[in-house]
């Protein structure tokens, strides 16, 4: 397992690159789980790998050799035979630049990306399969840079909304709209276009992930002291855990999913946050980004 940062000029749009490898015994499957996240382009380096995933309580689907993981409302359960995969995570701002397709159309969906990454995706996948995994970041940078070079309307607001979702003081859609300096109807449209879910749900997901990782960080002691102050009490958090995890938080912590456990440490060390959906938003305004990429 490895994580890498993208080139600096891609940081507002690409959350990072990753490499996963599993090697279960013959005739056995590796079982693991992914956190609720934004978007990821993934390329199987071992196309014969039999890989299936299920988002929350949805149906199990086979992951194609070239796949797009859309934004997820719950954990994604994974089972696969031995294999390797490399991938690139995209932020909501990255999705806004990449395609006109609504993010909501890819919510809780895993499948072939179709034309979203352009006609060169197949050739790029062939190229990346010929090099060692640690050379993948430079290839991803070169592939994604032209696809993410076209500024779009509403970038300032999407950037502001990304940052506001990470702020524990923002607890309502009204407060979110105020932070973005837009009407509630406008942020509903932005959420559908770039984030994949309604604003109220996005606030719930961010609050839950902050709390879950606070419990991860503090161990299995008194979880009530670690949860977000937006919860009325610990039982409120437990009810949310059943919605996002499908089980109580302590049971989830006890699963011991090997990739999840290791990724929490490596992702924070290499990318700055233990979850893609908790990664700091663009430090600069989108206007600064537009000026840089068009000058």
Automatic annotation (TrEMBL):
Name of the protein described by the UniProt record: AraC family transcriptional regulator
Pfam families tied to this protein: HTH_18
InterPro entries: HTH_AraC
Lineage per the UniProt record: Bacteria, Pseudomonadati, Pseudomonadota, Alphaproteobacteria, Sphingomonadales
Species, as recorded: Novosphingobium olei
Ranges for domain HTH araC/xylS-type: 156-255
GO MF annotations in UniProt: DNA-binding transcription factor activity; sequence-specific DNA binding
